[in-house]
Amino acid sequence: MTSGRGEENDLAAGGPARHVPVLREEVMRVLDPREGGLYLDATFGAGGYTRAILAKPGTRVLALDRDPVAINEGAELARRAQGRLYLAQERFSRLGEAATARGLKDFDAVALDIGVSSMQVDDAERGFSFRGEGPLDMRMERSGLSAADLVNTAEEETLADIFFYFGEERAARRIARAIVIDRVRAPFTSTAALASMISRVAPAKPGELHAATRSFQALRIAVNDELDELVHALVAAESILKPGGRLAVVAFHSLEDRIVKQFFATRSGRGQTPSRRLPGEPVPPEPTFFLPGKQPIVPSPSEVNANPRARSAKLRHGVRTSAAARPLDESLLALARLPQRKAGGR
């Protein structure tokens, strides 16, 4: 939570935060919030980043979250911020539209903390975790297709692809086949039932993660279209940052980090040779980001000891140049989606 004395800090804190976000101090150093600046917290959650930014006098924050629970719980912070916090229930892929609707542009920094929040994981009724009995839901917005809908209606090949590509689950086909067989007798409606079945057909070896870990991650990503959302959010953030503006992204697993890494590599021109081009070879576009320092930044051992969920976090960041924003890159979208199947098989 934000600490300190004085009216400005009290107003910004808005009461105790429910948790301190992973790599918060490192993210704040990257964002470098300054008096009077305009910032976008695209994954509000419990408001940890937003509180830290608002602690700087005169800062303004547009904070987004697709989860209505997070928005409702942020209402008191918005009230105390007295017009400096714009809070909106919105997907971060639509951060550009959210900014335009409020007449905001030329942001000094954008922060993205990808994935599910501790609040969502710890609430068994949300169905994100297999560690407690709850409905097989996983919907961040509490609307649309649920994990139960997907598990009980998708074809075996689709389920196998979801588990393999979004969860990197080696036993994807075995788990998908068991789901299709078992759901005929009784549909899967609870997290415990699905986790128990996965443990039965693909048990984890001693010392490994729980057998259901990767499958639950994969279902959550599929239900919420998380990787596609991430690609669109990165492109949108590029378009609203002013020259010198900063983009900070915290990812928690390899699929997210691969997309973020590729985005920054492409946008910064990393790996390109500025001279000695073949005849007729097109000149690449000007870099839209400069990548400072050694990356990625990872949590310190002390943070991991205090919060084991931080162990896989990686922070990547870039500084916006004056080059024109680029359109959506189809190669990034390919990283975010299941591969297209050919007629008659893969």
Automatic annotation (TrEMBL):
<dbReference type="InterPro" id="IPR029063">
    <property type="entry name" value="SAM-dependent_MTases_sf"/>
</dbReference>
<dbReference type="Pfam" id="PF01795">
    <property type="entry name" value="Methyltransf_5"/>
</dbReference>
<keyword id="KW-0698">rRNA processing</keyword>
<feature type="region of interest" description="Disordered">
    <location>
        <begin position="269"/>
        <end position="323"/>
    </location>
</feature>
<dbReference type="GO" id="GO:0008168">
    <property type="term" value="F:methyltransferase activity"/>
</dbReference>
<feature type="binding site">
    <location>
        <begin position="47"/>
        <end position="49"/>
    </location>
    <ligand>
        <name>S-adenosyl-L-methionine</name>
    </ligand>
</feature>
<feature type="binding site">
    <location>
        <position position="92"/>
    </location>
    <ligand>
        <name>S-adenosyl-L-methionine</name>
    </ligand>
</feature>
<keyword id="KW-0808">Transferase</keyword>
<feature type="binding site">
    <location>
        <position position="113"/>
    </location>
    <ligand>
        <name>S-adenosyl-L-methionine</name>
    </ligand>
</feature>
<keyword id="KW-0963">Cytoplasm</keyword>
<feature type="binding site">
    <location>
        <position position="120"/>
    </location>
    <ligand>
        <name>S-adenosyl-L-methionine</name>
    </ligand>
</feature>
<keyword id="KW-0489">Methyltransferase</keyword>
<dbReference type="InterPro" id="IPR023397">
    <property type="entry name" value="SAM-dep_MeTrfase_MraW_recog"/>
</dbReference>
<dbReference type="GO" id="GO:0032259">
    <property type="term" value="P:methylation"/>
</dbReference>
<comment type="similarity">
    <text>Belongs to the methyltransferase superfamily. RsmH family.</text>
</comment>
<comment type="function">
    <text>Specifically methylates the N4 position of cytidine in position 1402 (C1402) of 16S rRNA.</text>
</comment>
<feature type="binding site">
    <location>
        <position position="65"/>
    </location>
    <ligand>
        <name>S-adenosyl-L-methionine</name>
    </ligand>
</feature>
<dbReference type="InterPro" id="IPR002903">
    <property type="entry name" value="RsmH"/>
</dbReference>
<protein>
    <recommendedName>
        <fullName>Ribosomal RNA small subunit methyltransferase H</fullName>
        <ecNumber>2.1.1.199</ecNumber>
    </recommendedName>
</protein>
<keyword id="KW-0949">S-adenosyl-L-methionine</keyword>
